[in-house]
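quick q for whoever's on today - can somebody do inverse folding on this one?? i tried earlier but teh output was garbage lol. tokens:
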């Protein structure tokens, strides 16, 4: 009984080994199978032996744009796959074509295609006949000005393709995943080639997701379920032959729940127009809902906008009242939290900036200020104090007036000023308090007098003096005959 089982086991191994060998490729282009190799034109260097010796260090090369290698087999065979190896990327032809013949006269073209950029070029093609002669026609020269072939191989069967390496990643939205893989089969109009992609929800049970033709190496899986784990694997297909499946790759699709609130801001208002803008928080399709309120409690929907729009200008109907805004995002799955509240108000929140200077006379003080308006309607109030504590209003001015000459002051006196703005909603904060001392208008210096006599009855008088009050004042002239007792001549 043991002997029988041993024989059965050996028989099974023999059959399995036979099946594996029968599917293995056999290179027909060897010196044992080739009767002759001819070149047209004669190569600049190399012999036929260099093409079949299994070494990529020996070669044949041409410096012409079209060259032919004709291989004569000892026994006719049906080639369906070949490999041509080139010395380097600098010595690649542009195209290669293969033809078959049984008399070396009448040829049937079996395949023609571009070589591409790889030094090892392989191609499968449909061929229903046995031929004794196979001719390879290369056209074009490499960037170095030569076409250099190191190995030429021909096969009667198509090899099983190499397993691709798969990469999978979750997209920015949860409704699709992106796949890519290494290319292991080439596009071939004569042979069906491509890839089969499988997907699993548990990493164990896979089902066919898609079949794509070569040379495609990317795929978008859609629709997927957001925030869900998926496993993918892929295999290459060349005609009826398949590679092994790649290692399964797991991804978890994006979570499309809107968890983050937009940041809402308001630009500089132009009269009744309020420009609003907000940050974009959505990767999925969706919209933004803009809400408006008069009391920051009860909001009504103002506008629904596509997710690509993140700004809106609202027109106010009453600028004497406060207005409040909020925004939120909405997609197929959820609504985001509401944004921060933006308050639009005519309240005067900025502080005036104040500048003081004494006038050119003691009864004038010069006041000027700056102001950044947050309201369309307001006025300025100028207040004065002699002790920087108790202030009284001097004047109220329109919003377009930014300076004032206070002529109700006394000379040589210290005054303090402050300014604020007011409108229908209240007053702005006061400016800082600044002080100024008015000019002392007292005449503290004497004029410089010059006197001369031109005749016995006339005296010429002249003088110089600089007044601090150029528009107010005058001179008194006095005369004496003894230099002590003076009398006035006039003012």
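ok took a stab at it. sequence:
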């Amino acid at each position: 009984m043991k002997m029988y089982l041993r024989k059965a086991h050996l028989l099974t191994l023999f059959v399995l080994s036979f099946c594996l060998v029968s599917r293995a490729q056999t290179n027909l282009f060897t010196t044992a199978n080739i009767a002759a190799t001819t070149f047209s034109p004669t190569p600049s260097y190399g012999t036929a032996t260099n093409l079949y010796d299994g070494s990529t260090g020996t070669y044949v090369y041409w410096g012409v744009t079209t060259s032919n290698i004709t291989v004569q087999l000892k026994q006719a065979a049906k080639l369906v796959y070949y490999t041509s190896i080139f010395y380097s990327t600098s010595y690649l032809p542009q195209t290669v074509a293969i033809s078959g013949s049984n008399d070396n006269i009448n040829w049937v073209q079996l395949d023609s295609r571009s070589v591409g950029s790889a030094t090892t070029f392989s191609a499968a093609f449909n061929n229903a006949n046995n031929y004794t002669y196979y001719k390879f026609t290369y056209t074009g020269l490499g960037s170095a000005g030569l076409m250099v072939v190191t190995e030429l191989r021909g096969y009667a069967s198509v090899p099983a393709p190499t397993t691709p390496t798969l990469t999978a990643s979750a997209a920015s939205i949860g409704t699709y995943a992106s796949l890519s893989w290494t290319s292991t089969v080439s596009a071939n109009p004569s042979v069906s080639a491509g890839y089969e992609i499988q997907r699993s929800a548990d990493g164990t049970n896979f089902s066919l997701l898609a079949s794509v033709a070569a040379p495609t190496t990317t795929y978008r899986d859609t629709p997927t379920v957001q925030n869900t784990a998926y496993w993918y694997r892929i295999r290459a297909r060349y005609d009826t032959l398949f590679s092994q499946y790649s290692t399964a790759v797991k991804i978890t699709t994006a979570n499309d729940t809107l968890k983050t609130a937009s940041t809402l801001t308001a630009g500089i208002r132009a009269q009744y127009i309020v420009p609003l803008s907000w940050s974009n928080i959505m990767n999925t399709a969706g919209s933004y809902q803009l809400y408006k309120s008069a009391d920051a409690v009860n909001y009504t929907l103002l506008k629904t906008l596509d997710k690509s729009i993140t700004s809106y200008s609202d027109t106010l109907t009453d600028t004497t009242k406060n207005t409040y805004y909020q925004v939120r995002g909405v997609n197929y799955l959820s609504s985001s939290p509401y944004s921060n509240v933006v308050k639009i108000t005519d309240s005067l929140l900025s502080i005036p900036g104040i500048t003081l200077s004494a006038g050119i006379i003691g009864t004038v003080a010069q006041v000027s200020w700056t102001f950044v308006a947050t309201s369309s309607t307001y006025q300025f109030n100028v207040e004065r104090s002699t002790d920087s504590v108790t202030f009284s209003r001097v004047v109220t001015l329109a919003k377009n007036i930014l300076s004032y000459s206070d002529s109700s002051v006394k000379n040589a006196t210290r005054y303090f000023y402050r300014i604020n703005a007011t409108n229908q909603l209240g007053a702005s904060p006061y400016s800082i308090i600044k002080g100024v001392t008015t000019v002392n208008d007292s005449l503290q210096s004497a004029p410089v007098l010059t006197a001369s006599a031109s005749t016995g009855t006339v005296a010429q008088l002249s003088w110089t003096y600089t007044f601090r009050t150029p528009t107010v004042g005058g001179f008194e002239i006095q005369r004496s005959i003894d230099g002590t007792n003076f009398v006035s001549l006039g003012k």
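fwiw The CA atoms of residues 364 and 407 lie 4 Å apart. also The helical segments are 2-23, 49-52. so keep that in mind when u check it
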